[in-house]
Amino acid sequence: MVGLDYVANAVVSGILIGSVYSLVGMGLALIWGIMDVINFAQGDYMMLGAFVTYWAFTLAGVDPLLSVPLSFLVTFALGVLTQRVVIERVLDAPMVSQITATFALLLMIRYGAEAAFGPYTKRIYVPYADVIFRFGTISLQLPRLVAFFVSLGVAVAFYVFLKTTYTGVALRAVSQNRMAAYLMGINVRKMYWIAFGIGVGISAVGGTLVATFLPIHPEMGGFYALIAFIVVVFGGFGSVFGAYISGIIIGVTESVSALFISPSLKDVVAFLLFIAIILVKPTGLFGTEQR
Amino acid sequence: MSLLDVRNVDVFYGDAQALWGVSFQVEKGTITSIVGANGAGKTTIMKTISGLLIPKSGTITFEGRDITREEPHKRVEMGIAHVPEGRQLFPRLTVMENLRAAAYTRRAREKFQDTLEEVFNLFPILRERRNQLAGTLSGGEQQMLAIARGLILRPEILMLDEPSLGLAPKLVIMILNLVRKLKEEGYTILLVEQNVYQALKLSDKAYVLETGRIVKSGTGEELLRDEDVKRAYLGL
Ligand SMILES: Nc1ncnc2c1ncn2[C@@H]1O[C@H](COP(=O)(O)OP(=O)(O)OP(=O)(O)O)[C@@H](O)[C@H]1O
Ligand SMILES: [Mg+2]
Predict the structure, then answer these.
(1) Is B134 an interface residue toward A (CB < 8 Å)?
(2) pLDDT tens digit string along A179-207?
(3) What is the CATH number of domain A4-280?
(4) What pTM value is reported for the model?
(5) Number of domains comprising chain B
(6) Kind plus residue range of the DSSP H or E element containing A110
């Protein structure tokens, strides 16, 4: 029997790691929802965020948490560039061309990083890495707790941006009716730059957060991209906030199931949950029926 | 100089030609109608003016500037508003958000609060429904919102593509009265309307379009008396 306190611990740590999955998934969902493009390289932009943080810390001693804006801005700029140079050209192309293009991005970023940084696992040792909080029987590592709150902060900021700014409303308008957006004087092309930039930037913040408590590696994007895909489908395709919740659900599922079965199977459990949900509600947990 | 000058415009969908050497003008402060059967190319003309379609040949001049190849959002910034056929709202945005989406250009945003007040006075129901999702409005309310969005753009020319389509007779009359009122307030309007009789009565100038070609033009009154027009479009 597994004690209740173990389960409680697993739930909490699942929520914490899940909040990072949420960010990676949100970025993917945003790009998907606005442009109908599936970005296979999403996890690799996340990896870039992790490495921005790693190098800022290693070379300049910048605290990983302070590098959150840096990580966002660097990948945002790369995202805008990617949109202008690559994605824009395949937006109206057949899906196969889009998949090929973003898959090519994946290869270039992933193995470019590997060539540049070496195929090694790297770690950031922050001074507060081993600070542990205890609430009753639940114990929490400080970096993971901080990661959760930063992730939540990013999600809330993004929500406020989408709801209250002219650009946010315009982004949502573009995702719902591109033709009407043109007629409202919205610069659709520019909205796409912003969408891709923010989309990869948010995922990169996930990378930064992960780097504070897990080892990073140029190929780490593969695993997170897979999770992000589950998150997005689970959350109802382009639904950005559905993605946030489902990221957390997947984190919890993973970490609770690891109590009962071999930890190496925990991703399989996430996929099983995914398949179960899709069988019951093909539009995802928070998806709308129309589309 | 006309506000809008369309000259010898040929437009294609792929290989299929939809407009053939179309020319017409819209004068400031007038209502100009385009009359034609289904599939004649009325919507195509409006899309070409708003920049959703680019002509293969011919020119479009607006306030003396050649805009033939200008991007759509820049045309809106110049004052061209197109209220499309079938409303084309943002269904999962609220009424208010739909209006804000139309205040994206500098031209619209500077005056947004004032225009919003005017628009809400014109359509009080929209003020009541401002936090409701556009997709859940009734057909009439949706059409009002579509027109309201066009007004938020602060246009020099307002193009209305079948604004009364699918509405109950009472609402049709309301929309047509609104068009007249907008003209009195100084708007310039390019109108496509299924109720040809009503449209021609309102119009200072009208053009008849047949299979992508302009075959006739005149004042609204002239066309109302025209035998061909009577037979083809007024069922007389
Ligand atoms: N996207 C498209 N692709 C191919 N052909 C099109 C497209 N849109 C319109 N057409 C064709 O162009 C011609 C003109 O269409 P258009 O929509 O401009 O007509 P309309 O006068 O607005 O008709 P209605 O009164 O039915 O709205 C038609 O023959 C139509 O089939
Ligand atoms: Mg039409």
Answers:
(1) no
(2) 999 999 999 999 999 999 999 999 999 99
(3) 1.10.3470
(4) 0.92
(5) 1
(6) helix A95-117
